[in-house]
Amino acid sequence: MNKIVDNAASAIHDISDGAVLMLGGFGLCGIPEKSIAALVEKGITGLTCISNNAGVDDFGLGLLLNRRQVKKMISSYVGENAEFERQLLHGELEVELVPQGTLATRIQMAGMGIPAFFTPAGYGTEVAEGKETRMFDDKMYLMERALHADFSLIKAWKGDRLGNLVFRKTTRNFSAAMARAGHITIAEVEELVEPGALDPDQVHVPGIYIHRIFQGDAYEKRIERRTTN
């Protein structure tokens, strides 16, 4: 099956107001830059965005936040986005903060078809409010539900027209799991190759999980925080 679409606009054509989206990447590393830009251009609103972080003020998810296109964020770390903070403190944005390991596992469970699991992370804190708790081996745990999305938007280093994907380093962190948790998964890649060009032992996400794929260009790959010795 040929899953190639021409560009980001074609890939996200059926994402509409109120959609639940997963967006891959870690910090600004490996984020679906072109898909986010297409969402900004389309101007859809009321989005629920599931992402490890919220980008920065003028890049990544920050672009959607700046234009008030996001209704709710489900994230782990949001400390680099001043506009996110402002909207949160003024009651303009719904926010569900999730411990990072719990967030990753909730996404993984969705891809595995497991509806819920028990974890000790967050027990006894605000994270546990309204959730079922249970004791296992004299230790308390709380129940977390799997996270699903209408669309998963991810970026990979290489992919083929069948949707097989290869990531580089940190970009794999959330993206591989999100590819399995979306009802429709859209992948953008830096390099689109022919079937057979990828070493099967190096494929991180098999094509069965990918519905649409396109090659982007001129990726900015911005550094979130530059440090020197």
Automatic annotation (TrEMBL):
SMART domains: CoA_trans. Keywords: Transferase. Coiled coil: none annotated. One of its GO terms (molecular function) is succinyl-CoA:3-oxo-acid CoA-transferase activity. It holds the Pfam family CoA_trans. PANTHER family: KETOACID-COENZYME A TRANSFERASE (PTHR13707), SUCCINYL-COA:3-KETOACID-COENZYME A TRANSFERASE (PTHR13707:SF23). This is 3-oxoacid CoA-transferase subunit A.
